[in-house]
Amino acid sequence: MGINFTEFKDQAKRILNIDLDGYKLDRVERRTKSLMRRYQIEDFDQCLDLIKNDSEFKDAYLNHFTINTSEFFRNPENFEFLETEVFPKLFEEKNRVNIWSAPCSNGSEPYTLAIILKEMGISPTKFKIYATDLDHTILDKARRAEYKENSLKNVSDKILDKYFKESSDGKTYVLSSEIKRLVNFEQTDLINARFKNDWDLILSRNFFIYLTKDMKDQLINKFTSVLNPGGYFFLGNTEYIFSPEKYGLDKIFQSFYKYEG
């Protein structure tokens, strides 16, 4: 008799060195089984064996498991608020603004920030954009910055013409180098990593919905512990922080929270 999912999960998290218990287990099981069907894997024993001994499958598992959907200017009203309300205040108060996108997925979110700051005329010497994700495969895609049209549905024609070039086959658009070099990418496991300090804006959009309540609570505390007083925490539109005041946060607009310290 082969191992069950709980046994698989407990062994897989040690091999992968990620805390699978921090994610909603029904999602972990569902994603695992869908990948097993794709690879015609018969049971959890075989799946675990491949994770142990096949580096390509191990990467495929992490890639399938992590959250890799994103688009430019997702929920445009939030980025308008960022441009008209948040950024002007931050750059008025700070000589240099530190921004962290975590997780960053395919890079469309941190690149959106870079485009906004470029359009605002903010000098690159006055900000740093740091973007992290667990999946090194998606980070490679983010660094290449080549996107299909569905990732650009909220991008205006003006911005598209100014910062993107259509590929030779007409299937994708490549972001300009002047925007790409404004973002620094790094692989990071948000659940296990020790966070760097001194952030004025942290974006963690559409990540908490996949986490358990306890892990969400732990991560909010981790993120706020590295936010500067007066800094901002930006979530996805379907994510909410109940009783934000217990984390030192004040909700100011839709999914924006200000950290009072």
TrEMBL record:
GO terms for molecular function: S-adenosylmethionine-dependent methyltransferase activity. Keywords: Methyltransferase, S-adenosyl-L-methionine, Transferase. Signal peptide: none annotated. The keyword Mitochondrion does not apply. Residues 1-261 form the CheR-type methyltransferase domain. Transmembrane segments: none annotated. This is Chemotaxis protein methyltransferase CheR. One of its GO terms (biological process) is methylation. The keyword Plastid does not apply.
